[in-house]
Amino acid sequence: MTIAAQLRDVSQVFGDFTAVDGINLDIESSKLTTLLGPSGCGKTTTLRMLAGYAQPTSGSILINGKDATRLPPEKRNLGMVFQSYALFPHMTVADNVGYGLKLRKVPAPERRKRVAEALDMVGLGHLADRRPKALSGGQQQRVALARAIAIRPDILLLDEPLSNLDARLRLQMRAEIRRIQQETGLTVVLVTHDQEEALEMSDVMVLMRSGHIMQQGTPQDVFERPANRFVAEFMGYENFFATSEHPQATVRPENLQLLERGATLNSGAHNLPAVITQIAYRGVDVMVRATATDASGTAVDLLAAVRADSGLASGIRLEPGSEITAAIRPADLVPLAN
Amino acid sequence: MSIRLAIPKPTMQKTGGRPVLGTLAVIGYVVMIVPILFVVAAAFSGGDSLQFPPENFSLKWFGAAVSYKPFMSALASSAQLAVLATLLALVIGVPAALALQRSNFAGKGWVQGLFLSPLIVPELVVGLALYQQLIAGLGTSTFTALLVGHTALLIPYAVRVTGAALSLADPFVEEAARGLGAGPFKVFTSVTLPLLRPGIVSAALLSFVTSFNNVPLSLLLQGRNFSTLPVSMLDYVQKSYDPMIAAMSTLILAATIVFAFIAERAVGFATIFGGINK
Ligand SMILES: Nc1ncnc2c1ncn2[C@@H]1O[C@H](COP(=O)(O)OP(=O)(O)OP(=O)(O)O)[C@@H](O)[C@H]1O
Ligand SMILES: [Mg+2]
Q1: What ipTM was estimated for this complex?
Q2: What is the pLDDT of residue B99?
Q3: What distance in Å separates residue B183's CA from the closest CA in chain A?
Q4: Predicted confidence band of residue B37 (pLDDT cuts 50, 70, 90)
Q5: Which atom of ligand 1 is nearest to the CA of A83?
Q6: In this complex, is the C-beta atom of A84 within 8 Å of any C-beta atom belonging to chain B?
Q7: Is B185 on the interface with A (CB under 8 A)?
Q8: Nearest-CA distance from A22 to chain B in Å?
Q9: Angle of helix B243-266 versus helix B60-67 axis, rounded to 10
Q10: Nearest-CA distance A16 → chain B (Å)
Q11: What confidence tens digit (pLDDT) does each residue in A182-198 have?
């Protein structure tokens, strides 16, 4: 495993507000790393420090093992795609993509070849002579991507590149960025606040909250074993309760079993007496809300997603007021640190 | 002076779909434009008095205007003054617009106010102040005082119009250029300047026209052997009232329309006036 970039104890302070608070992060080569977290948690600030647009207040940044903390952006050879795309309006698509190559004094024939390559990679070869203004949002986004890739950057940095696109295009671009990354073996750092996007695209997910890294790992690590309640909530967990062994644990709504009151799941399962409070039919499944009493005696709200026909199978009435048992198999229980 | 009136015409396109507003706008334009048409028509008169309809068709008053010495020397003075004041206003205003648009610094609002204040302070006050300080106080020439006054008058236009062109651009394009390997100077020449160019062109045109047409400052600061074209025309009207003045006005009007047309081609009126009213 090679490391393309390292952040060491990096902080960014604006006035008396600490936007990034002493984070340590290794960016692995040829992998797609996402920085994920709610608005204002410091994702963009972190990316801008990596790119050289902002200087860390303290700490250091290494790129390819060399200290780059004070290096200006033009000396870092990183490709950045801005959320607004930031295309040069006075240049054609081809000139936008060739801009970085021209600065690198790549001879014209070679430059044309590489511009064409980059544009083909994003499927825009036929629009080389257009101006950015004459392109759709999705096309502009691809030009920005091609422009960043054309310089063969050591790391490609993407700040919420898909947030201005409509839902369908967004799904398509996720796959496309992933394909390009895997074909070229590029190191990519992608900022997003969409957990689904991060799960789908990442090799490594980095979850941030108020300037701190809360968890880092593969999408499976993070999704199946969230380290704490914040990560669990961000990953869509809804049920939080205490068991006899764990002061805080969670289970996904689709893994919460609903049984007749008095019935229990066998062998080490956790059984909580519960009363259904609300039912919402959603076609494939039914969302069932219930209140239960957990191992510490506290009343907790639970949410279960059950197959529409399973109420019949387990013999319970799916209606408010119905007394049931909410059961969790040991394998589905996710213990959380506080 | 009929010159400024020619400019706002194209904003008419916005009134479609609102009958009352549209009608008012049309009335407004008619009120502004009809008198101009009378002046233009009178300029082609073959008679000796300024009247409508003109007695018969002739270009003789255009010939008279062009060969009337005081007008021509005033025209040269006006052009010289307008060109220099425009250049000075751009030299000061463009960097100011850049600084105001692209950076945040302590007292930014205050600086902005300073650069735009000549739009608010009555020109007569500025003229009197300049007269007292420069001509009466320091004994500078009429031309220097006029140049200072006109430059001050034009700076807000330069700041606003170039600022408007810049504010339409994505604020991250310069960062994008740096990320692609351009140093600060290269970013300026290859990205910032091309983005500014339409703004600079229209600021220059607008400044030139504004200076060229200015009466209050020029009236206060004129000297015995230096007066601008509008002032000299004003003088002329006080003495005699023949179609020559209409011919001269028509010539200026024609030149202004050409100017406005170039400006519209360069950036569009939305940018120019959006910048001023922002
Ligand atoms: N130049 C600045 N001056 C002061 N505060 C700033 C500055 N830039 C960012 N911040 C603050 O730092 C925090 C982190 O900002 P950042 O842009 O990194 O968030 P983010 O995670 O990218 O959020 P989003 O998802 O909304 O883009 C925010 O609270 C923001 O208000
Ligand atoms: Mg952000």
Answers
A1: 0.83
A2: 84
A3: 6
A4: confident
A5: 27
A6: yes
A7: no
A8: 25
A9: 80
A10: 17
A11: 999 999 999 998 999 99
Whether the predicted pLDDT of A164 surpasses 70: yes
Strands in A257-260's sheet, in edge-to-edge order, are A257-260, A323-328, A270-281, A285-293, A299-307
Residue B168 resides in a domain: yes
A259: left (phi over 0), alpha (psi -120 to 50) or beta: beta
Closest alpha carbon to B84 in B204, B256, B3, B202 = B204
List the structure tokens of A158: 């993407």
State the pLDDT at residue B268.
Answer: 63
Q: Are residues A116 and A74 in the same domain?
A: yes
**A160 and A244, same structural domain?**
no
User: A325: domain CATH number?
Assistant: 2.40.50.100
How many independent structural domains does chain A possess?
2
% of chain B residues with pLDDT over 90: 13
Closest residue of B to A104, CA-based?
A: B181
| B107 close contact with A: CB closer than 8 A | no
The predicted structure's pLDDT at residue A19: 96
Question: A298: closest CA among A245, A254, A240, A226?
Answer: A240
The 10s digit of each residue's pLDDT in A196-215 is 999 999 999 999 999 999 99
User: Hey, which of A11, A36, A43 would you mutate to test ligand 1's pocket, going by the most ligand atoms within 8 Å of its Cβ?
Assistant: A43
Ligand nearest, relative to CA of residue A158: 2
Q: Where are the beta strands (DSSP E) in B207-270?
A: none
Task: Choose among B271, B269, B256: nearest CA to B5.
Answer: B256
The C-alpha atoms of residue A269 and residue A276 are separated, in whole angstroms, by 20
Could you tell me the pTM of the whole model? Answer: 0.77
Asked if A259 and A316 sit in the same domain, the reply is yes
Q: What is the rounded CA–CA span in Å between residue A20 and residue B195? A: 34
Hey, what amino acid is at A261? R
